[in-house]
Design brief:
By secondary structure, this protein is α+β, with helices and mostly antiparallel strands. The chain contains 7 helices and 11 strands. It has helices at 42-60, 65-86, 134-140, 146-150, 188-191, 196-203, 209-222, and strands at 2-8, 18-24, 28-37, 94-95, 97-103, 106-112, 116-121, 124-127, 171-176, 182-186, 229-235. Strands 2, 3, 4, 5, 6 and 9 form a 6-stranded antiparallel beta sheet that branches. Strands 1-11-10-7-8 form a 5-stranded antiparallel beta sheet.
Length: 241
């Protein structure tokens, strides 16, 4: 397994409030992207704290993968929520979170908010996670198209976040991993500017996952990148000879 993550402040924001984590031992892998929200530096605190706490909790947990993901999410939520109540500068902060645990031909995902996970094969790309956002609800109800949602003025309004309340519910997804496939996790700084088809074309182009991630971020920057941009990508199975 090959894994790589990259984040960029973008063209407009003065601070990067995204955070990511990636780890693999060659057999198993963990990927994570958080997109923080909050005034001053609070968004950065929320995303960094959530990523660190989630990764540590997952590494120390035991049992089934779904149970471990839910427990790690709960511990990350508690850490961010507690900090927001104890530190006046962090009051009201929160963050999105999308994470994947992959290994032995299967991947498990958990998400809160609108940071996304995609599954890519030579045959196409599929968004695995479901956004917790206002525009996602409007698309699901047929009031907006996917294209309209990408430029909607309320596209950044999320309906669920980590750290804003004492408890949080994360959605769990599972995918069987095919040969020559990849996982891509990203913040909305990428998905608001780059279409899934463009992600697929870039991700399957020649080059290492690091090169593919760099090209995706560069594409968002070319289009103005009004938000922070974060991408983590994993080659799930070695390419066949």
């Amino acid at each position: 397994m090959n894994i790589y993550g990259i984040t960029d402040r973008g063209r407009v924001r003065t601070q990067n409030q995204d955070a990511f984590y990636e780890w693999t031992d060659g057999t198993y892998a963990v990927l994570l992207v958080c997109d923080g929200m909050g005034g001053a530096k609070a968004g950065n605190v929320a995303s960094t704290l959530a990523a660190q706490q989630f990764a540590e909790a997952l590494a120390q947990s035991h049992g089934g993968v779904q149970e471990r993901l839910r427990d790690a999410l709960a511990q990350a939520n508690e850490a961010v929520y507690t900090r927001s109540r104890q530190d006046a500068a962090c009051q009201g902060m929160g963050t999105t979170l999308v994470a994947a645990f992959a290994g032995e031909g299967r991947a498990y995902f958990i998400n809160v908010g609108d940071s996304r996970a995609y599954y890519l094969t030579p045959d196409g790309i599929r968004q695995v996670t479901r956004d917790h956002s206002l525009v996602a609800e409007l698309v699901e109800s047929g009031k907006l198209t996917e294209e309209e949602a990408r430029s909607h003025p309320n596209r950044n309004v999320i309906t669920r976040a980590l750290g804003t309340a004492g408890d949080v519910i994360g959605d769990i997804f599972e995918v069987d991993l095919e040969e020559d496939s990849r996982l891509l996790l990203c913040s909305d700084g990428l998905s608001n500017l780059v279409t899934p088809e463009e992600m697929l074309q870039t991700a399957l182009a020649e080059g290492r996952v690091a090169d593919c991630c760099a090209r995706l971020v560069a594409l968002a920057l070319e289009r103005g990148a009004p938000d922070n941009v974060t991408v983590v990508m994993l080659d799930t199975v070695p390419k066949s000879a």
